[in-house]
Amino acid sequence: MTKLGWVATATSFLMYIAYIPQIMKNVNGDPGSSIQPLVAAINCSLWVFYGIHKKKRDWPLVIANAPGIVLGLITFITAINQ
Question: Do the Cβ atoms of 67 and 14 come closer than 8 Å?
């Protein structure tokens, strides 16, 4: 299960890195949806909070969702600032 947790962490991290092309499009004047990245950032914030505040911290969960907060918010902000 530990290995599965870290594999899931890696794939989650890659999923949020996929926001980078959308951020670039937003900055270049071709904005995408702002709702999905905002909801993703909120969701990731909740999971990070949960993972940190468990009796035994769940680091794969925290690490997997932390990029989603940052990249989701950047994507949201760049989408609404067009």
Answer: no
SS (H, E, C) 12-30: HHHHHHCHHHHHHHHHCCC
To which residue do tokens 């760049």 refer?
Answer: 78
Q: What is the mean pLDDT of the chain?
A: 91
pLDDT tens by residue, 13-25? 888 888 999 999 9
φ and ψ at residue 64, rounded to 5 degrees? -65, -30
What residues contact residue 9 under an 8 Å CB cut-off, 6+ apart? 60, 61, 63, 64
Using a cut of 0.85, tell me whether the model's pTM lies above it: no
d(CA 43, CA 53): 16
> Is the alpha carbon torsion for 47, 11, 67, 29 positive or negative?
negative
Domains and CATH numbers, the chain: 2-80 (1.20.1280)
- Residue 80 tokens read as 């609404």
